[in-house]
Every structure is written in structure tokens, then in C-alpha cells.
Amino acid sequence: MAGRNTTAGGEKIATPTRQMRSLPVRADRTNINQEIRARQVRVIDPEGTQLGVITIEQALAAAAEFGQDLVEVSPNADPPVCKIMDYGRYRYEQTKKKHEAKKKQAAFKLKEIKVRPKTGEHDLMVKLNRIKEFISKKDKVKVTVMFRGREIALTNMGRSLLERIATETQEIALVEQFPKFDNRTLFMVLAPK
Asked: Which domains, from first to last, does the chain contain?
């Protein structure tokens, strides 16, 4: 007797596989209503009073009675804690909290200023003004001295140039990373005070 994927002559044929459809994946992974898999849950009503530990069917009925959703707020508890609330409003408040937390984080950028060991006096003053401008905007500044060809012999000039920049900006900036040699460049990082 031939199997499902073979013909009467024993040749194999290709049969299309049926793709199973899955529910759309939410990024927050909060279970609501019928997605809650626990048999029993601890339920809190919209006013904040506990209804106790009840079966999921009773909890869904209570949520329907209030005309709101049953939202699993603490899935790792035993039994899981669910709250009867408006899920759309809950999501809105969660995104609002995330946005506020992100706003309070200290966001800074690392700006880079490149100079050469033989940079002229006026050009150096322009670069210093740019460094002061970046630091006043609370950004960190990486000052790089680039050496080309025979300039590699002028590492002392490069070091003294970085020291001069550090002293010129010492009232508004701290040296976060002291001058360090990397390949054919010498660099240091300044951070706002």
C-alpha cells in the first residue's frame, strides 16, 4: 500500500505543507482575557479591592460584568495576579511611563575634534571654541591628534597640545580619558563637569 506522499508506482511526490496561522505577536507580552492560561487567578477589581482567588471563568465573567478587560499584571506570582481594567488605557499609561523614563536618562553624544601636531594658533582657538560649545551642550568630546608620515616623531608636541586643550577647558570639562596613543593617533576624552 502506497503512503500519502507516494504514487502507486512508488515515486515520491511533493505535497504542500499547511501553514499554521498564529496570533499576532505583541511586543509587551501582557496576557489579556482568554490568553491567560492559569486555572486560578487572584483578581483585583477596577476600584482596587481584591475579589480573591477565583477560577479564570469566574474572573472573565466579573470582567464582563464591569465591561472591561481582565489583564494579567503579575504573571510570575502564585497564583497570577489579574486586574480588571481598560487594556487600551493600561497600554497608554505603560508607554507614557517608558517615555518619561527615557526622557530622564542622560543622553549624550561623543563628538570628535581632530587636530595635527603643527596646527596653527588661530585654528587651535577655533577648535577650542567648538570643544567648549559641545561641552556646554552636555556632549563628550574626543580630541584626536593625527600624525602623518614623519610627524610621528613629534609625539611630544602632540601630548603638549592635548595638555594645553585640557587646561584651556578645565573650568567646564573633566578629562575622562587621559592622552593615549593608538596607532598613529593620540587622543583623549573630555566630559562635561
From this structure: 33-102 (3.10.20.80), 110-192 (3.30.110.10)
